[in-house]
Amino acid sequence: MEKRILLLTDFSKNALNAIKYALSLYSDSECTFYLLYTNYVDGYPIDNPTFSLSGQRTYNIKVPKTEDRYEELMQELQLYRKNPKHSFQTLAANNALLESVKDAIAAYDIDIIVMGTKGLTSSRTVVFGRNTITIMEKVTECPVLAIPEDVEFTPPKEIVFPTDFKNPFKRRELNYMINIAQMHNADIRVLHVKESAELNKLQQGNKELLDTLLKGVGHSFHELEEMTVRAGINAFVDSRGSDILAFVNQKHNFFTKIVSKPLVAELGNHSRVPVLVLRYRIK
Description:
Low-confidence stretches: 41-64, 260-270
Shape: elongated
Strand order of the largest sheet: 5-2-1-6-7-12-11-8-9-10
Order of helices and strands: EHEEEHEHEHEEHEHEHEHHE
CATH architecture of the largest domain: 3-Layer(aba) Sandwich
């Protein structure tokens, strides 16, 4: 089945690296890649274009600067395009980033978003820029995969999935993590940073349910204790050389708490690990 993948770009090096990662991750799949550029940064227009995502054409009004950038980008991407079943569409919007992303998801039935962890306007002293965290937290329609700066693609062999087992999972929430694992024959390592000596009855039931849902893909369960969640994740990923870190975003401001200050001190090693945010829609 064809995958519809939204690639966010501001034509920065970090955005290009994330796009290249996506092309490699889905190198054997039939995909349509939708590249989205929004001319708003922190609420202000960059190129002053007046086009939108609506309508049949990519642009309603021609804006040479943006079109030239896209032409250069597409020429470069042809060097990395290995699968003839990969096709591309370029989009541009004059709305705020989150609104533009949600419009694109609805208009093109997007399966997953791939983006860099920061763009032209982000400080080089942080790993996750404000726009990245906003998309991670606010997009509930589909998963988000954030690729850190300068991370080169290697086929993932281990995906770390931290959980406290306090909430039951649904199969549809885990589908994309399982799909990536199956595509690359990767194992899923379920990590629990313990807050108490033993799991309670509810947590044990949720662990058993997760074990059932992950059948069909290699997986194992791991525990750490006497450290914070951030420190535990960092230590586990760093010690094993894991390839992807996956979360289900179940709480408002979850990522602000996990990847905000002091990020460099406590999760600095994750600057080398892509983060997969699995969707969670509150009913």
